[in-house]
Design goal:
The structure is a single chain. The chain contains three helices and eight strands. It has helices at residues 2-18, 29-41, 113-119; strands at 22-26, 44-51, 56-62, 75-77, 86-87, 101-106, 109-112, 123-129.
């Protein structure tokens, strides 16, 4: 499951560096939930499902500020395919004093660090983004 996370991180970073307007991923429900959480946090724009039923894609709009700088400046992957990182809500600290976010895969879905602390639920720490 986490190899999809590394693909998301890599494609978002390279899409930002190249100045792309949209980035496309292969469809999976997990990728969709991660990208929709990033959209709700304001790191990417709209997430759209394209294609027909057997072959679908996720199309993500990239976000830039007024000066043309990308909204995503860095991403740090915590859980990897070879090493999973789990933690409780007490371990989910703010990223860059609230300017970033920690995404956590929980039984309630993919949540940010602030949502994990407010709902008092733990899970697998996926990545930090700022």
């Amino acid at each position: 499951m986490n190899h999809g996370i590394s693909q998301i991180i890599n494609n978002l970073k390279t899409g930002n560096l190249a100045g792309k307007e949209t980035v496309t991923f292969g469809f999976s429900k997990f990728r969709q939930s991660v990208l929709e959480k990033l959209s709700s946090l304001g790191f990417v724009g709209k997430v759209k499902v394209t294609g027909t039923a057997p072959i679908q894609y996720l199309e993500v709009e990239m976000k830039y500020d007024d000066a043309g700088k990308p909204r995503i400046s860095a991403v740090h992957q915590l859980s990897k395919y070879s090493r999973r990182v789990y933690g409780s809500y007490a371990d989910a600290h703010q990223v860059k004093n609230g300017y970033g976010a920690l995404l956590v895969s929980t039984p309630k879905g993919v949540l940010s660090d602030s949502e994990v602390r407010s709902q008092k639920v733990g899970g697998e720490f996926l990545f930090k983004i700022w």
